[in-house]
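Issue: copy button drops trailing tokens. Both records pasted manually instead:
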Amino acid sequence: MNNAPIGIYDSGLGGLTVWREVKKLLPSESLIYLGDGKNCPYGTRPVEEIVMLADAAVARLIAEGCKMVVVACNTATAAAIDFLRTKYAPMPIVGMEPAVKPACRDTRSGVIGVLATERSLEGDLFRRTVAKYGEGVEVVPVVGKGFVELVEQNREETSEAEAIVKSAIAEILSKGADQIVLGCTHYPFLLPVLERVVSGRGVTIVDPSPAVARRVAQLLNEYNLCAIPDHRPSYRFVTFADETYRQQLENKATACCSES
């Protein structure tokens, strides 16, 4: 048993979609959420810079006393997860894997779309995942251009957001995809818009966040790191940006819980 907190890290607000699922599944666990904020978005940054930023974030969470870290950022996972697991072994570090496997398994049309950042789609992790699970399936990768900025600026429910989403997924829909994988943790905040845009088309939108929470639970048991069942959890929010941004993280987390 271990009552130390779990650290959850993202470039900004997006990883709160994972934070929400971990909190829901593991109500006795304390959580520290680090939203970089200062350097968001990561999607077009050089790989070397993303590795440096991810290293700084994990080091900060370890300094805060975390027993495990969840890299709740697809871009940081794609660029840095192997480096982080080597440097910080034996501490368990959970990353984001594109939910290509369930999408390929469940597709009826034989076509799936993957929405992600540039760096995620260029990464070896994405290519390996498609090669492993995508045999006989057409995978249509599309950059969710402007998606992160919409979420960071709390503009998800605007006409501009709807126009950006429609433009981004037009190619995916035109090719007959019946599964759309959300390959960035910011993107589930746009789920209501996505669902409106694909309404009536028989399209399933795949959010990997619940699967990540289940993986966290599995590793807590495996490493004997679970909090005691009656532990009273605490929830903290930290950032490399300013106090205004830290408060924004806290407010978004509160909204996350009220929506779930």
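Record 2 (pasted manually too):
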Amino acid sequence: MEDLEDTQALNDRLREMVNKSSVDAVDKANAERKQTLRDCEKKIKEIKSQSIHETYEAHEKQRLAESEAKAAKETLKRKTSLYLGLLAFTLLCCGIMNEQVRTDFVDLIIVVASSIADFIAIYVPWLSSFSNKMEWYWAWLLRISITALILAGCFGIGAGIVAIYHKYKERWCTLSFKVLIGSLAVITVFAEPIRYFIPINLIPLFIGIQIIYLFILWYFDGYYANRYRKEEWERIQHQ
């Protein structure tokens, strides 16, 4: 009987030891699992931090490269504008020194001024003699009406010139500068041959070239827009 009790006690102790060892093993396994999870989370955080840092450095390098490229482009643009401006100034000085250009400029002013003076000299006596055949109130009404029409026509011409100038100013670009310099160079260098073959004043010829160029710009605006190539047209104008 005592042996049986001792055996049961021993079994109970063994069972208790087994249970305790199982609990310890489970606790140890949970502790190791938690430690592994903590290590994994720490590693993930380190990887994320490193990735964020590398991404930030990549963005900074890209931003720096874009800034340097933009600065280089702006520097090149300024230098190009400076060189073109110096060239335009040189051509303008050559034009002033060119006798044919100076002559045409003076002739243009004289022709415009003399045309206005001749028109006034003819218009005033004609209007006076024409209206004297009527009653005084009809005569003054006719004088005022015709004068108002003439002034309106002059105002319309002036407004049209100003509108063309503003349109030209709005469309000003690198291509416009090149066309301006090219036409100025042709007229300055080849002033005498042009006047020899084409009997036309060089100043209106120069202005006419700029107006024709403006209409060509409008034409190509529609041409490239209809073909969905506006970016290419913008690049051509500003390159």
